[in-house]
Amino acid sequence: MSEKPSVDPDLRRPLLAYRVMATIVGVLLVVLVLIGVPLANFDGTGMWGIFPSTPEIWEAGSGAHDLGEAITEYLGVAHGWLYMIFLVSAFILSRKARWPIGFTLVTLVCGTIPILSFWAEHRATARVRAEHPARVEHSPV
To answer: What is the dihedral of CA 100, 105, 111, 117, to 10 degrees?
Structure first.
């Protein structure tokens, strides 16, 4: 009975950590920006000291407004902390996979852009798998 050769986990774990964090951060960012911010701010008042008035879709103090406030307050903080973990995991993966600095920076910045973060995760995963197939083979990710 022959054993399968063990796969070098040198890139499997960093790739898995990166993919998990990219997905979590991407989903939170979408909820925060596309749900929380509109619910919290579309009450006809000014927004962030930049816009003097926003569309009045619901009243300040309504259930929708309060939900938006809670999403932006709690999810915003969670996203900020988790984004820091995402940055570290992406940076570790970039060094182990020997990405050029430009590819690394684009990948890190894309974590701040709703929807585009999912494209960046797909792009980074495809690159790691293409450039290091032996180091990620049999990987469940």
So the answer is: -50
